[in-house]
């Protein structure tokens, strides 16, 4: 390369400078020499080489002691290039008749160190111009330039917002430059995560180059502009018994550490950290909650609804009533929103609410009135009613001739609760019959039956007894040889009776009277026609009380 028409050698600081002698070697050369020129133009000779003796001599110049090397072709090399080596060197070839000279300009370059941002601010405050830091790049030659960047964009000076000051200081001993660029900056809230860096631009042997510093992020402080209150845990619904925490936050940096919490019914705020906790909340905690900064500015509010559910069952617990009695039952609720009520009896969901105008045995059982609050998870209530329906033993006796005509079945239909104990006896003899069979006890009803083959008329007694009363009923049964109208066995013991009890009683009495009259007439006719003697052996019962009376009267008349 040429500088102002002169040949220039670019060297890197610390490397070896190589300068060829750009003169053609003439005939009759005697010797060659190198010199450099002082700023005032005076020459300083540094190396000599004879063309005949081939010996090399180096002048006693302190700056170049042990650094020079002159080759046979008169190329001069200087080790460990320094900034002071930037001079105008001249190659001289001397003959007897002439002296030829050719100058060479030496340029030395030094790459600076990677720039660093020093003296960084601990934090930045908005609306305040302050020193952000200093970008330092050391040991450059020639001097370089420093540019500041924010998020990859050049920071241009702005009055009272961006102030940049660049200093370049040369080391007296080495001649190398240190560039220091300070940045004063007024940040905004948006600079919270901004990346600041600096770039040094310098010149090297091949042209202009740059080196960038590591980016730096600063903590930007800015005042709170908004306060926010929230309820934790973040649930859409709160129910009685829950634990809740109010959390207040400000959008400043650093965030506020203390707040005032305003509770419904309280006029003064409660000073606390950023949280305020409440345990086992009740319905009276429903209301508007607020929080503010301690200076009572920038307030926010939220409304809390504590959902509740009350259930009242009347009556409840264990209730004992008598059959036929009325029992009003009510299940009422009080809740913060619509609730669903349902009834369960003995683990089976009922279609309608229970109503007892006349209690029956089948009404007894375990009732549960349950309710849940819609869309409120975990809020449900239930209460129980254990209904016991008691009744004195009621007896109805029936008889029928079996299809084989060899025996009769006598049934004692029993109602009552607690379950009555049943005993069969033969009237007159007082003997107890132990061969009775009982059906299953369901809804306060069951049956006890015996099978007999009476040779003579007999009276059977069915005794039913529980804690309330002892009930005795007798039934006359005719001898197996005497035909009679059989009574059908009640097959509906297991089913609940839905016909009014009083109506059934009236119908039973009427039918019973008619059957008694008919049987008495038939028996009397048969008796007159048959023998006068009555059977004295008893196996099991038949007949009717009216029938026995007639037979006894007829016997008495015949004997008379």
UniProtKB/TrEMBL annotation:
Membrane topology: Single-pass type I membrane protein
Keyword Membrane tagged: yes
Parts of the chain that traverse the membrane: 505-527
Subcellular compartments: Cell membrane; Cell projection, Axon; Cell projection, Dendrite
Domain Ig-like: 103-212, 223-305, 324-386, 393-473
GO cellular component, one term: plasma membrane
CDD domains documented for this protein: Ig, IgC1
Protein name listed in UniProt: CD166 antigen
SMART domains: IG (SM00409), IGv (SM00406)
Pfam families xrefs: C2-set_2, Ig_2, Ig_3
InterPro entries according to UniProt: CD80_C2-set, Ig-like_dom, Ig-like_dom_sf, Ig-like_fold, Ig_sub, Ig_V-set, Surface_Rcpt/Adhesion_Mol
Entry's Gene Ontology BP terms: adaptive immune response; cell adhesion
Metal-binding recorded as keyword: no
Keyword terms: Adaptive immunity, Cell adhesion, Cell membrane, Cell projection, Disulfide bond, Glycoprotein, Immunity, Immunoglobulin domain, Membrane, Repeat, Transmembrane, Transmembrane helix
PANTHER family: CD166 ANTIGEN, CELL SURFACE GLYCOPROTEIN MUC18-RELATED
